[in-house]
Amino acid sequence: MLVMQLLRGAVKHAGSSPQFSVERLTSAARGFSSSSQHLSDFGGTPPPPCTDTEHPKILITGGLGQLGVGLAKLLRRRFGKNNVILSDIRKPPNHVYHNGPFIFSDILDSKNLREIVVNNNISWLIHYSAVLSAVGENNIALAKEVNITGLHNILDIATDHGLRVFVPSTIGAFGPSSPRDPTPELCVQRPRTIYGVSKVHAELMGEYYHHRYGLDFRCLRYPGIVSANSNPRGGTTDYAVQIFNTAVKTGCFECNLRSDTLLPMMYIDDCLRATLEFMEAPADSLLSRTYNISAMSFTPHDLVQEMQKVLPELKVTYNVDPLLQAIADGWPMVLEDIAARRDWGWKHEFDLSELVQTMLTHITSSNQRAQAN
Predict the structure, then answer these.
(1) Half-sphere exposure of residue 77, counting CA atoms within 13 Å on the CB side?
(2) The 3-state secondary structure of 193-220, one letter per residue
(3) Gap between the Cα atoms of 194 and 134, Å rounded
(4) Backbone angles phi, psi at 252, to 5 degrees
(5) Pairing state of beta strands 224-226 and 216-222?
(6) The pTM is what?
(7) Position 48 confidence tier, pLDDT thresholds 50, 70, 90
(8) 263-267 and 296-298 as β-strands: parallel, antiparallel, unpaired?
(9) Per-residue pLDDT at 5
(10) What pLDDT, on a 0 to 100 scale, did the predictor assign at position 340?
(11) Closest to 147 in 3D by CA, of 189, 104, 205, 195
């Protein structure tokens, strides 16, 4: 009703203004609808959320990171190739571009993002755009802009259009004052990185939007993710990915964390499956909007010992990075995920030995194919 009053006033003014245009009227209306105050604040009714009786139309932001391409592949198998749109601000590799819809999307451009949601009838939004822990400490301004301002755009647009929205959190959302072994679902969270601070902010803002506006917000605290298909992007747990590629190529590896640094980890297939299962879980089964998920915890020493069962000549040295070590020392050692297993049936499949076997097999096969070509 308030929107109509504003438009009627603008039309009335148009008759006495030679400079008035339809474009300006449309722009004014659009600017009002995208403000931080939502329709429900004025007694209006926001769009209904998507139902589970139809295939969702899904947008993944930050899609060229560690998880986006793999999740798109999984979701396309589940819901159909054309129902999953991958997006990023970078040009995709050819194999990504030709495997399904890909578009440019900048989460800091709210107007562009809103047009994508409307024009493509999006019903689920997977928000993977983020600046990770180590990179964020070296560029705090960028981390604040992407991780906080970008998040606000996502939440506003998701609320205005009745979307189901997924925002990942991290073990980095905990800090030195959090219980570390194990780290429960609910405890003090005082992270000391801008990445961790921004993720606590995301958890709280998402839950606020859920309670205030009814937004179907969902969040999983991911452990360190190990994947053979993606390059490390500046995370503290990246050593657990780098070691496999380097070990297969050279037989040597220099680790930047202490050998006894215990951290929660998960193989990427478990992570992606958990995300899909969580997104499909009925809303009334979720007693929380933010859950821990875990699979295993190991140290660099544990990982090396398991790898040496297959690569007995592997040599590992340690050259500790003080920044990365300080970050890791404030993170959980073991992540408690009782609630996820109880509420929506989460269950991991890969332990350390299976992770090592799978990673080495995948990387060795990839290298052989590359050499053959």
Answers:
(1) 8
(2) CHHHHHHHHHHHHHHHHHHHHCCEEEEE
(3) 9
(4) -135, 155
(5) unpaired
(6) 0.84
(7) low
(8) antiparallel
(9) 40
(10) 98
(11) 195
- From 243, 222, 245, select the one nearest 331 (Cα to Cα): 222
Element holding 61 (H helix, E strand): strand 58-61
> Using CA atoms, how far apart are residues 36 and 20, in angstroms rounded to an integer?
26
Crossing angle for the helix pair 150-160 and 194-213, to the nearest 10 degrees: 20
Structure tokens at 54: 């139809």
C-beta separation of 363 from 245 below 8 A: yes
d(CA 335, CA 170): 11
Q: Which residues of 97-130 are buried (b: 16+ CB within 10 A; e: fewer)?
A: eebbbbeebbbeebeebbebbeeeebbbbbbbbb
Any long-range contacts for 115-122 (C-beta under 8 Å, 24+ apart)?
116/59, 116/85, 116/87, 117/59, 117/157, 117/161, 117/163, 118/161, 120/57, 120/59, 120/85, 121/57, 122/57, 122/58, 122/59, 122/85, 122/161, 122/163
Q: pLDDT tens across 150-160, in order?
A: 999 999 999 99
pLDDT at 270 over 90: yes
Residue 231 is predicted with a pLDDT of 72
Using an 8 Å Cβ cutoff, are 14 and 20 in contact? yes
C-alpha span between 159 and 219 (Å, rounded): 16
* Catalytic machinery residues: 195
Q: From CA 154, how far away is CA 22, in angstroms rounded? A: 28
Q: Using an 8 Å Cβ cutoff, are 29 and 6 in contact? A: yes
Q: Are 313 and 248 in contact (CB under 8 A)?
A: no
**CA gyration radius, the chain:** 23
CB count, 10 Å around CB of 333? Answer: 18
